[in-house]
Amino acid sequence: MADTEKLHFKIVLGGTYWKKVPVYSILVNDTVVIDKQSITSASGETDTVEFDYEATEGPCILKIRLENKDNSDTVQNDDKTAIVKDLLLSIKGLEVDEIDLGSLLHTKSIFTGDDPARPVLDNCIDLGWNGTWSMQCESPFYIWLLENL
Length: 149
Known about the structure:
The structure is a single chain. By secondary structure, the chain is mainly beta. 8% of the residues lie in helices and 54% in strands. The strands form three sheets. A six-stranded antiparallel beta sheet has the order 3-2-5-13-10-11. Strands 1, 4, 8, 9 and 12 form a five-stranded antiparallel beta sheet that branches.
């Protein structure tokens, strides 16, 4: 039987919006932890989401999905040189077992849009189209953390 460890995740999310709020899902190892939850804070403010996950030894992949953006959520100025209104989901912070992962949020993550024509982005914490931000760590977590700091 594989060894397991209980990990406590604390994720700070922010939403930028003007007509509808961002809707997100959170998965760990493709198990849905939070399904299609709406941001509850005002635009530009943050929500904190916390949960525990029993991780087995080996890869542990955290995924955060933006679920509900469509083309009408982005408004450009008249000459199409700037965005004046938008819907974004931003990952503002991530703690695992009360340890702030800081820059690992950027350096160990990728963002993949649902549209295969979109590029895969590194160092992206502002989700501007429907897709999945993902970060892989390992269990045991503390050994992975020491190796990646």
